Amino acid sequence: MPTTTPSPAVSPADLARLTEHWAEPPSLRAWFSTVDHKRIGRRYLVTAGFFFALAGLSALAMRTQLARPEAGVVSPQEYNQLFTMHGTAMIFLFATPMLFGFGNFLVPLMIGSRDMAFPRLNAFGYWVFLFAGLFMWSSLPFGAAPNNGWFAYAPLTGEQNTPGLHMDVYALGLLFLGISTTAGAINFIVTALKLRAPGMSLNRVPLFVWAIVATAFMVIFALPALNLDNAMLFLDRRFDTHFFDPSAGGNVLLWQHLFWIFGHPDVYIIVMPALGIVSAVLPAFTRRGVVGYPLVVLAIVAIAIISFGVWVHHMFATGLPQLSYSFFSAASTIITIPSGLQIFAWLATMLLGRLVLKVPLLFVIGFIVTFVLGGFTGTMFALTAFDQQVTDSYFVVAHFHYVLIGGAVFPMLAGIYYWLPKITGRMYGERLGRWAFWLIFTGMHVTFFPMHLYGLFGMPRRVYTYRSEPGWDGWNLVSTVGSYLLAVGLLLVLVGVVHAVRRGKPAPPDPWSGDSLEWSTQSPPEPYNFPVLPRVHSLHPTWDERTAESTGPGASADRVLSEGRRTLLTSELDAHRERAVEMPESSLQPLLLAGALLLFFTSMLLAWYPVAAVAVLVVVVTIAVWLWPPRRPDRELGVTA
Amino acid sequence: METTADLTVSAVRDTRRRGRSRRSLPIALFGLLLLAGCAGDSPSALNPAGTGSARVAGLWWLLFWISMAVFVEVMALLIWALVFRRGTARVRHGQPLRFVTIAGAGLPLVILVAVYGVGLRDLAALGDGPGPEAPTVEVTGHKWWWEVRYPGASGATANEIHIPVGEQVRVRLRTADVLHSFWVPQLMPKTDLIAGETRETWLRAERAGSYRGQCAEYCGTQHAHMAFLVVAQPRADYDAWLARLDAPAREPGTDAERRGRQAFVQGTCSACHAVRGTGAEGRVGPDLSNVGSRWSIGAGAVPNDAGHLGGWIANSQTAKPGNAMPPQPIDAARLPDLIAYLRSLE
User: pTM of the full predicted structure?
Assistant: First the structure.
C-alpha cells in the first residue's frame, strides 16, 4: 500500500498559502462563522448523538413503565409525549442528521474536494437542524411536547382533539427542520456531481457517495409531501381550515397518503446511507473491494425509485380497495430484491476476502444478522393479509427496530469506530469497543426479539400500560432488561469515544489501509483536505499506485490551487476538469438567518404574529445580503482558469 | 411462560459465544416460536379461533419457515467466512456476479412471486364478506370505548360483542371522533375506523368462547384502555341474548336496587348514560342496561366487581385518567344502592 505522508509535490510556500486561505483562527467568531465541512460534519454527528441520547432516555423511561403491568412510573399524558418524541427525534433529529453528518465530513474527502459545493448553505443547514431540534425538545419540560405519535394521524391531531401547543410544535418543528434537510440534500447532489476529483468518473464513485446522492434525491422528492401535510395541519389547527375535517368536506386519509408518500421513502432515506457505510467499511476489513459494484449501484438506484411506490402498505388496514392493495403489495414485495442483492454482494465480499475482525467489522456482522431478520418481517408486511393482522401491534415495533437499529444504528456504529481516527485524529480502544458491541448486540435482541412474540400475542403498540390477564408481562420484563443492556452498551460507545479523544493514541493517516480518498489525507485532515487534489485512476484510489503518484513528486501544479480558497469543478459524468472555482469564506450570515427563522417559528408557535412579521423581514434582508454578488475582480473569482 | 423466558435468555447467552454460537440461534428461535403457538391465555394470533385469523396464521407459518431457511443460508455463509476467511486466508479478487445475482435476486424473486400469490389468495379470502342476510353488528368507536348496536334491537351495549358461533357476522365500523382500529387477534385481522366513513369487516368464530379485542390505532390518552370482548355462543344463546337487548332492562328486585335506580335516574348518571325503560337516555357514555353482566368496566380498565364499580363511580380518573367521566360527588350512603342496582342489570 502506498504511504500517505503530506505530498512532497507541494512546496512549503504553497502549503503556507493553502493554510492562509483555508485555516480558521481559533476564535469565538470563527466558531460561529465556520463553513468548514469537517467542523460542520462533526457538529452534526455530536448534535445528532445528543438528540439520540435524549430519545434513548425517553425509550428507557417507556420501557421502565412497561416492565410491569399497570405501573405508574409515568402518567399516560407523559407516556404519550415520550413515545411521540422518541419516534420523532429518532427519525428526524437523529437518523438523518447523523448520516448527513457522516456525509458532510466524508463526501468531500471521498471525492477529492476541498469542501462542499455550498459551504455557507451547509453551515446554515446545521444551525437550522440544531435550532429545530432544540425547538422541539424544549417543549417537553413544559409538558407541551407532541403527543400523537410520530405519524400524527388526523383527526386526532386537530385542535378539538388535541388542544394545546403539542401538535403545533410538531408541525412547525418539522417544517423548520425540513429547511435544513432540503438544503443538505441539494448540497450533496451538487457536490457529488460537480466537485469530484478529475478522473473520478461515475463508475469510480465510492458506494457511500452513491448512497448519499440517491438519498439526497429521495429527500428532494419526498420531503415536499411532508411539508405540505404539516402546513395543512398547522392551518387546520390555528386558522380553522378544514383539510382533515370530514364534517366540512376534508379527508382524514389525505394526511396518511401524504405522510407515507414521504414516510416510506424516508425509511430508505435512513437505511440507504447506512448501507453505504457498510459498503465503505467492508473493503478495509476484507482487504478487497465490494463484489459487484455495478449491481450495488443498480440496487441503490432501484430502491430510490421503487420506494416511492410502496407507501400504501402503511395503510393496509384502512379499508382501501383490494385491487390497489394488490399493486402496493407487489411493489413492497419487489423492493426487498435490491436489498437482498446488496446483502449477497457483501457476503460474497466476505467469502472472498480476508476478514480483519476489528470492531467496525463486528458491527457490520451484527448489522447483517439483524437487518436480515428485519428484512424477513418486512417482506411479511408486504403481504396485505398478514400486515392487517400484525400492523400496529408490537410485531411492527419489533420489525422496524430490527430494520432501523440493525440497518442504520449498527452501520453508524461501524462508521463511528471506522472513521474515528480520521475525524478526531485519535485511535479508539479495541477492547472497550468489543464490550460495547456485544452488549449492544445482545441488548438489542433481548429487547426487540420478544416484541415479535407479544405482538403476535395481541399486544397493540403505543399503549402506556397493559393488564396482566393477556399474559404479556413476562415478555415485557425481558424487553425492559434488554433495553438496559442496550443502554449500557451505547454508554460504552460514548465512553470509548470520549476516551479516544482525550487519551487515545494519535492516529496515523491510514490506520486500516482503507481504499477511498479520505485515507490519503492527514488524521484529522488539514483545513484544505488535500495539499494537491488527486487525479483518480480507479475505484479504490488509495490502493492504486497511479492515483498515489498523482499527488506525489511531479504532480501537476494545476491541482495545487494555492493562490486562493479554491477547489476544482469537473464534469458530471466523466469528471473531466472544467475549471478552478473560488470557495466562499466563513460568514455569520448562516447563523443569523437560522436565528431569524427560529424567531419566526417560535413566534408563530406562540401566536406572536407581529414578531413573526419582523422575523420574516430579517430573513428576507439576510438572504438578500447573503446573495448579493460580491465586488471582486473576475480574476479572483477564478473565472479566468 | 417461565420456560420460554429461560429459552430467550439462553438463546441470547449463546449469541455471545462467538462463531459456533450462531448455529444454535435458529434452533432457539424455533423453540420460542413453537411455544408461541400455545401462549397461555393470550389473545394470540397464533391460536386462532376464527376463519380469518386461521388463514393468516397459516400464512405466518409459511413465511416463518421460508424465513428460517433463508436465515440459515445467510448464517451459514457468514459463519463460513468467519471460520475460513481469517488469519492467513488469501484474498481472492474475483467478481462472482452470477452467485450474487442468483442468490441475491434470482432465488428471492422466485420465492417472493410464490409467496405473493399465496398472499393474494389470502387477501381475497379475507375480503370474501358475508351475504346480505348475515347477522350484522354496528360498532362505533368512541374515545375510549366501543358502542355496540344490532339493527333490529332497540338497545345498545358497550365493549362486548356477541356473535353466533360458526356464522359469518358482518361488522359495520364507524367512529364518533378520531381513528380507531378494530382488532380481535384470534378471529380477524384489523380494520381501521375512519372518521367520516363507514368500513366493514366480518367475524366468524369456529368455536364458542370469549375473544379479547383491542383498539390498535393510537387514539389519544387512553388508547391503552380500549379493549373489548367478542363472545361467540351457540345460536340459541345468541338469540336469547339479542332478545334481552331489545327488551327493557331488568327491574330492581330489592329495596336497595330500587333506591339505586332512583339515584341513577334522578342523579347526574342519566345525563350521560342510558338504561332502557327507565327514562335515562344519555348518549354520551355507554348504555348501561346490561352493565352487570359485562366482562369489565372502562373498556378493559378494571374488572367488573362491586369494589371497582364503586371506585369507578366515585372517581374513574384514577383507573382511567383522561376519560370523559368526571368524579361523581355522590353521597357515600347512596353509593352501595347504586352499585347494587347497576350490578343487578344483567
Answer: 0.93
